[in-house]
Amino acid sequence: MPNVQEILNLASDLSERDKKLIAKAYDFAEKAHEGQKRMSGEPYFIHPFETAKNIARLGMDAKTISAGLLHDVMEDANVTKESMDRNFGEEITFIVEGVTKLGKLKYRGHERHVESLRKFFLAMTNDLRVVVVKLADRLHNLRTLQYVREDKRKRIALEAIEVYAPLADRLGMGRLKGDLEDAAFPFAYPKEYAEVQELIKGKKEIYEKNLNEFRSALEGELKANKIKAEITYRLKHNYSIWRKLLKHDMDIEKIYDIVALRVVVDTVEECYRILGIVHSLWRPLLGRIKDYIAVPKPNGYRSLHTTVFTGSGGIAEIQIKTKKMHQEAEYGIAAHFTYKEGDKKSPLDKKSKFKWIEELKAFNYAPEEPKKFLENLKTDFFSDRIFIFTPKGDVIDLPENSSPVDFAYAIHSDIGDHISGVKINGKMSQILSKLKNGDIVEIIAKKDAHPSGKWLDHSRTNIARKHVRSYLEKNSLLAKLKSLGRGK
Ligand code: MN
Fold first, then answer.
1. Which regions of the chain carry the CATH code 1.10.3210.10?
2. pLDDT higher at 341 or 145
């Protein structure tokens, strides 16, 4: 049976007020979903309860955990915005509304537009906490996917792999990404999943045994050098093993990090010292030494990686990082809720974070002040973009004030060159009108319809303008030829 204490135990650093808030959200959601059942036959409340647990595990704050408990009450239990506002305040209501909106978004499997869908997803949320709740919600849904109708399973699983997991990755939430992928993998690619299971059968035990011996040797060395380190090992997620197998002709022997040792220390200096010690005792494999501390991965991941011959014929990957790097790699943006002010920062910290988001501008990242950071989770990366749907549900990402002409050329130049009419949200409309975020646009193309000079004033994208211009140039040339009597 669910109980609120389970959530509180998973969360970190809660004040008495925080605990009261979570308890209130717990009671409210339990009552709102009373009598409702999930497809598994379980009480519906199990779902928001598990979602909140996923959020608490990430170290998120009390408001986000409460929003997790409440995330389905507006959509599925007819709780009004007024009642939410009155009981939990604007912020939590805002997060719940955001999650409800995202629920309406559907992935339809058109590879080409997946990136736009991810952007749209972020553009709609305005607050990264909405994304965190949505990802935690999706994780629990994936873990109960066997109860969902078979034809729906694959779509939901693919959506998780194509849209949700990459988003978790970009927010630096490595653990959540891996969990989402692993939960989705058997449903998205059942045959491949079985194949991976078959390939690694028995392997894991051998690697683990090998690694355990190596681990005690390394522990001894670190003790002798008076370095305090926590050494654990991790198994690679099934889905990432499969991705790697694809890169290496399905040859399991070429994957060195199915299990890896994780050495976690206090300081960056210790990381490099340990790398030195390891290399002086065990021979490293060529090309497998990676310094992601000096050069972090685009999502901010930092660590030293090396792979060594362990002596007994085995090979082992070692990842060396500080506690903080480890937390950030696992929890990403969520890690920042658990940091106290006054934490020492290296000057590299600021530059390396969330490159992807930085590139999208406007993300005011301030790791030195967790409270500010919280406020800055409000996003407006995409305030100058609009996202337009085709009737089939593909998303096209366009600059603000774009027209159906831009939309048509974004799909195909041949469609752009023959626009004769347009339906916006099912209604016949002007082809030079301004599109709005979320419009569904259908272009009616006819062979004898052609671009006109006016189109240039009403298109925002280079691709549309280029095509219109080149059509007009060709055409005026033809007209000239015609007037000279040589056109026929
Ligand atoms: Mn839900």
1. 4-173
2. 145
* Backbone phi, psi, residue 293, to 5°: -85, -45
pLDDT (average), residues 461-473 = 91
CA of residue 407 to ligand 1 center, whole Å: 33
Count of C-beta atoms within a 10 Å radius of residue 423: 15
* Average pLDDT of the segment spanning 148-172: 85
Span from the CA of 329 to the centroid of ligand 1 (angstroms): 26
Question: Which H/E stretch holds residue 372?
Answer: helix 370-375
Identify which has the larger pLDDT, 476 or 153: 153
Boundaries of CATH 3.10.20.30 in the chain?
Answer: 383-487
Our measurement of the distance from residue 291's CA atom to the centroid of its chain's CA atoms, rounded to an integer in Å, reads: 24
Using DSSP, state whether 85 is helix, strand or coil.
helix
Q: From the CA of 71, how far away is ligand 1's center (Å)? A: 6
Select 198-331's CATH number: 3.50.50.60, 3.30.460.10, 1.10.10.1100, 3.40.50.300: 3.30.460.10
Of 153, 148, 140, give the one whose Cα is nearest residue 179: 140
**pLDDT tens for each residue of 385-400:** 777 878 776 678 788 8
What is the distance between the alpha carbons of residues 331 and 325, in angstroms, rounded to a whole number?
Answer: 10
- 356-379: burial string, b at 16+ Cβ within 10 Å, e else: bbbebeebebebeebeebbeebeb
Residues carrying CATH 3.30.460.10, the chain: 198-331
From the CA of 274, how far away is ligand 1's center (Å)?
45
State the sign of the Cα–Cα–Cα–Cα dihedral 140, 146, 152, 156.
positive
Tell me the C-alpha distance between 244 and 246, whole Å.
5
Q: What's the 76 CA to ligand 1 centre distance in angstroms?
A: 9
CATH of domain 383-487: 3.10.20.30
Q: What does the alpha-carbon distance between residue 29 and residue 70 come to, in Å, rounded to a whole number?
A: 6
CATH of domain 4-173: 1.10.3210.10
CB atoms under 10 Å from CB of 355, counted, come to 15
- From the number of C-beta atoms within 10 Å of its C-beta (0-12, 13-18, 19+), residue 319 rates as buried
Contact 19, 5 (CB under 8 A): no
Dist. CA 450–CA 420, nearest whole Å: 8
Residues with active-site annotation: 75-76
User: Would you give the DSSP letter of residue 283?
Assistant: P
Token digits of residue 423: 């339906």
Select from 57, 73, 76 the least CA-distant residue to 65.
Answer: 57
Burial of 448 (0-12, 13-18, 19+ CB in 10 A): exposed
Are the C-beta atoms of residues 333 and 128 closer than 8 Å to each other?
yes
